[in-house]
Every structure is written in C-alpha cells, then in structure tokens.
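Milestone 3.1: sequence recovery, worked example.
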C-alpha cells in the first residue's frame, strides 16, 4: 500500500520507512487511493499522513472518518501533519476544507517549489463539520 502512494507522489522515491497504510477500493475492488501514516512521534503525539489517488472520487464520509480515526482515536495523536506542494492546488484546497492550518514554507520542495506544512489537531478535527455528528 505504501508503495502505491510512493509511486504516485513525486519526490517520494525514498519511501516512508516504518509506517502504516490504508487503501481505498472502488466498487470493482480496484485500488484507487492510499493513505500512509509515518514519522510517528509518540512523545508529542504527532504523526504525518501522506496520500495519493488515481481518481478524484475517493474521499467519501466513511473514508474521511477512517483516515482520521486511526491517528486520533486509535493512536491517541493530538496532531496530524501533512506536507503538500504549493503547486498541488487541489490538495491544498482539500486540506483547508478539512480544517488543517496552513504554513507556507518557501523552497520546501526544492529551489523552485514552495510547499505547505498543514497541521490538524484532534480538537479541530472533532469539532469540524465533518465529524461533529460522530464526536458530538
């Protein structure tokens, strides 16, 4: 699963090291998206998430719940970190809609490419429009 995400993510050729991953299948049981949880830091309660897909239609409500239930509910994380190229306008838009806080870092992806570091706390996730009904 992690290799699926690596193969679809430019600049991620080195992989994720020790990680956990979740795959998303379509109605025909074809793998269409994957999420990788990596760089787990139990002390401060941080984990990074990376994802990739071959379709724009994979973030259904049950997938969003599973994506964030793992770090927040199962691991007890207090924050999820997401790194995104500033050129990836779709993912930047999605992260902001999910309630992530953006931090623009010049040259984060190389000399000619800025990037965002997004953070999402467990409190912000539980109080978001996506989960109020579940955690309310």
């Amino acid at each position: 699963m992690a290799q699926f995400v690596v193969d679809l993510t430019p600049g991620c050729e080195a992989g994720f090291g020790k990680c956990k991953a979740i795959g998303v299948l379509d109605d025909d049981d074809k793998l269409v998206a994957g999420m990788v949880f990596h760089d787990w830091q139990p002390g401060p309660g941080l984990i990074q998430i990376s994802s990739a897909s071959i379709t724009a239609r994979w973030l259904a409500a049950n997938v969003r719940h599973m994506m964030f239930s793992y770090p927040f509910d199962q691991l007890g994380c207090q924050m999820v970190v997401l790194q995104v190229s500033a050129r990836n306008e779709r993912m930047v838009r999605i992260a902001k809609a999910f309630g992530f806080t953006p931090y623009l870092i010049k040259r984060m992806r190389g000399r000619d490419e800025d990037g965002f570091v997004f953070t999402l706390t467990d409190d912000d996730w539980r109080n978001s429009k996506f989960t109020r009904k579940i955690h309310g």
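The helical segments are 2-8, 61-74, 89-97, 122-126, 132-135. The mean pLDDT is 89.
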